[in-house]
Amino acid sequence: MSSVVTEEHVQYCFNVLIAHLKKERFPNPTFPNDEYFAPLHLHEGLRKYALISALKDHRFAPIQLKEIVSLTCGVSLLTNFEEADDYLDWEVGKHGIWIEFKQLNGQTETATYLPEVMKEQQWTKEEAIESLLLKGDFKGKITNEYCLNSIVLTRYQSQKLEMPYKGII
After folding, report:
1. Sorted alphabetically, which InterPro entries does this protein's record hold (predicted)?
2. Most buried among 20, 45, 88, 152, using CB within 10 Å?
3. CATH number of the domain within which 98 lies
């Protein structure tokens, strides 16, 4: 599996968004279609998350075509997935974390933070886990007995590249 983020990955995300907004066919990438998490192949993952982040993040208005020339896009490729021994078996600044947990009704939920999030927020491991549970819409009271000890945590590392749009729309 290639593990280096390239400008081609970032440009592909821009091109996917442009094609979607213009109602055109998605571009065909020329980089390898490696398998990543859960398992998600690179082409599908970049296409899916480029559109989700640009159009469906409820914190922001959806991106419009005219805005693309002023945007910067960042791509993080997630690598080195390892199931942790428990919910604290990871390092702030080194690992991203993906958790799986059960709601009070038994439904399984998941949530993730990239490695840089905990460092930027200056969170302890415990604060990061509580925030991640809230991000994943956990409905109950966060306790050791019910919640924290039942978390299945996968840690991973990430390589990231950010760059501005370089093309013409």
Report:
1. AMMECR1, AMMECR1_dom_sf, AMMECR1_domain, AMMECR1_N
2. 45
3. 3.30.1490
Give the number of residues written for the chain. Answer: 169
Looking at the chain, list the stretches that DSSP marks H as alpha helix, in order from N- to C-terminal side: 7-21, 42-55, 115-121, 125-135
Task: Give the span between the Cα atoms of 52 and 59, in whole angstroms.
Answer: 12
Q: Which of 161, 101, 163 is nearest to 137 (CA)?
A: 101
d(CA 164, CA 14): 9
d(CA 54, CA 52): 6
C-alpha span between 3 and 79 (Å, rounded)? 7
pLDDT digits (tens, 9 = 90+) for 71-82: 999 999 888 999
Please tell me the total count of domains within the chain.
Answer: 2
Least confident piece of the model among 14-18, 32-36, 164-168 = 32-36
Max CA pair span of the chain: 56
Query: Does residue 103 lie in a domain region?
Result: yes
Looking only at the bridges linking them, the beta strands covering 152-164 and 40-41 are unpaired
> What pTM was estimated for this model as a whole?
0.75
